[in-house]
Amino acid sequence: MTDQYSVNPALLRPFSPPPRLLMGPGPITVDPRVLRAMSAQLVGQYDPAMTQCMNETMALYRGVFKTKNQWTLLVDGTSRAGIEAVLISLIEPGDKILVPVFGRFGHLLCEIAERCGAEVHKIHKEWGEVFTPDEIETAIKQVQPKVLAIVQGDTSTTMLQPLDHLGEICARHGVLFYSDGTASIGGNPFETDKWQLDAVSVGLQKCLCGPSGSAPITLSEKAVATIRKRRHIEAGIRTDNHIAGSGRRIASNYFDLGMIMDYWGEERLNHHTEATTMLYGARECARILLEEGVENAIERHRIHGKAMAQGLAAMNLKLFGDQSNKMHNVVGVYIPEGVAGEAVRSSMLNDFGIEIGTSFGPLHGKIWRIGTMGYNARKDAVLQTLTALEAVLRRAGHSQTANAGVDTAMTIYTQEGY
Amino acid sequence: MTDQYSVNPALLRPFSPPPRLLMGPGPITVDPRVLRAMSAQLVGQYDPAMTQCMNETMALYRGVFKTKNQWTLLVDGTSRAGIEAVLISLIEPGDKILVPVFGRFGHLLCEIAERCGAEVHKIHKEWGEVFTPDEIETAIKQVQPKVLAIVQGDTSTTMLQPLDHLGEICARHGVLFYSDGTASIGGNPFETDKWQLDAVSVGLQKCLCGPSGSAPITLSEKAVATIRKRRHIEAGIRTDNHIAGSGRRIASNYFDLGMIMDYWGEERLNHHTEATTMLYGARECARILLEEGVENAIERHRIHGKAMAQGLAAMNLKLFGDQSNKMHNVVGVYIPEGVAGEAVRSSMLNDFGIEIGTSFGPLHGKIWRIGTMGYNARKDAVLQTLTALEAVLRRAGHSQTANAGVDTAMTIYTQEGY
């Protein structure tokens, strides 16, 4: 049949992506086990096998988050879907929120909170630094917010904000404590219960070895109580047995965590149609992390991150930011004087098949960001990246001692017993 | 190392779903080609191969939607994410929206629109019927809404709302015309441009043969102009070159279609991290539909849907609703007097590995819903379902003529030249 909307026949070929070693700030190369898990066939939305898979996924993420929180589940979307679900469910218009901003993703928390109608209070750090607990407590005293929202690892600056004292401060001031751990979890310590977090959201595409598209979250009892006050059941599936809350209805259906809990909970009230393939992937990401052991995975990220950073430094490159607060899994490195940053990235990608990252905002054009995370926190990935980058930088005229990067990394591997 | 949050070792086994033939109202068994496409490894977010894949996906969905709309792209979430993205981007608080409700998903449109702050006006039909264009035009004249929002196919009732006269009515009254075609597209005619639709959202998990988790949408120039008035660029990536719109900021970051267009467009402004695996899947769903030919796929759904419905009717079962307005891809059938509906579904699932659907709201406990859609709009799937259901119904005491279902279906296949 003829069809005026028929597409170019060339598009009817299956897509076949080129091989890439993804050594940027994420997304990174997915662990093949996760891709295999995602290739499993679907079961129905309320099949006992499906609800078992959902329950197991909840249990596995309790291990990832280090929490006993019952409400540990997936939001069906990318990591910022998890952020928005948490903020729009916790915040009512006019509520005060404090956001310490030390990079792009702090701005994102503000942006999302503003759209939730929050009164957003920000404190700022230069990109490359983090906050002290005292600075945050001072701001909490001034602002008296309902929620403290802070990212743990901000890939835009490579910094890792220490969270270990903040929960105690929040509890003392009656503040809900929320953190986004997308960039850091699995590669750096994260302790939901020990650090007294009330809400955490993450994504799969960094140290958890998966693709973007599912956002695991966990909620404390306090957070759940706040959300339950705003409970609402959809028309069309509501019955007389369902009791609504007294609070203001959450301003999103898709991100209404009360409804999402009712879907993941025993009631299994229909909400969205769970993205089963992403569920399979998310479950496998948690499974392989716990199989390795969370502490072992963090240690692996520490060692490969150190080998990469010191290898780069040995190539006459200057590292960005306060190294004592750097995430294990990504390092910023200044683009050397006289070297065209994008030409180097382009040669890395097109000649060597290796992706390294550019930067945002104030760091745009100034630093590259190089990741060692998830499946690519591996010796071969680190050494291939260092040798390729040395070759590209040499051809770009950068002055460096030959072989220094790879030899330094090798020395670190020997020291660390790798 | 010991770890108080360590999970049950039984959970560390990979998940292995049981084999199921999904003959409910969706999600359905995924075409294996889609699963294979989704098992491809990732490329970086701005890799030329990635942006090419995104552009190709846009082009392919123009073929699926039958539109020349430039802004034809994916929202990263389930089909209701696409609905919410369209509504929250089009509607400002206080705007009037008209929703003709003829099933559960009409209620959903109202629910989402209410949360967007819209003044929602509803008109209702009994479940099992659809609206005439006159009924809708009368309501448009009374309400004078900014947006008409209506689902095309509502799986809760199996009905297909004719849309072909509504675009002209909307254009005449200056109303934006939005439809959700999740349940129907690919299995029933859908003509975005011919029917003058301004916005359409769908999902993959019905006739498009994919898993839930990606929501293709398309927007007319009029819809885009409405959204562009509310343009906003995130702090952290904003530069002096970016001009914001004058309208009220969209009340969601994740669903801000202006930002999502800036991400899919030439500017490639960072928003979310595209869910690459879902993108691969969505691209393949469109590719296989266009390879088959949209008209051929619709015809296939018509034939298998007819074989199923008439096969069921021949088994002394009464079909639900106005059959002249039924979707091709799902049929409702009354649970016979004296038969326990859930016991039948349970035997179908546990003894035969075949899932058929239950119902919501006023139809709960009264009808089963049986799908013939996407990959499962196939002769073997239809015949297996009919023979299995005959066996289960026979054992449940239902009075029927032996072999009538499968013989009737076979006759239809012969008549249709299958």
Automatic annotation (TrEMBL), chains A, B:
Enzyme Commission number(s) from the entry: 2.6.1.-
Pfam families: Aminotran_5
Keyword Transferase: yes
Ranges in a coiled coil: none
GO MF annotation terms: transaminase activity
InterPro entries named in the record: Aminotrans_V_dom, PyrdxlP-dep_Trfase, PyrdxlP-dep_Trfase_major, PyrdxlP-dep_Trfase_small, SP_NH2Trfase/AEP_transaminase
Keywords: Aminotransferase, Pyridoxal phosphate, Transferase
Highest taxon of the lineage: Bacteria
Membership in a protein family: Belongs to the class-V pyridoxal-phosphate-dependent aminotransferase family.
Protein name: (S)-ureidoglycine-glyoxylate aminotransferase
Originating species: Cellvibrio fibrivorans
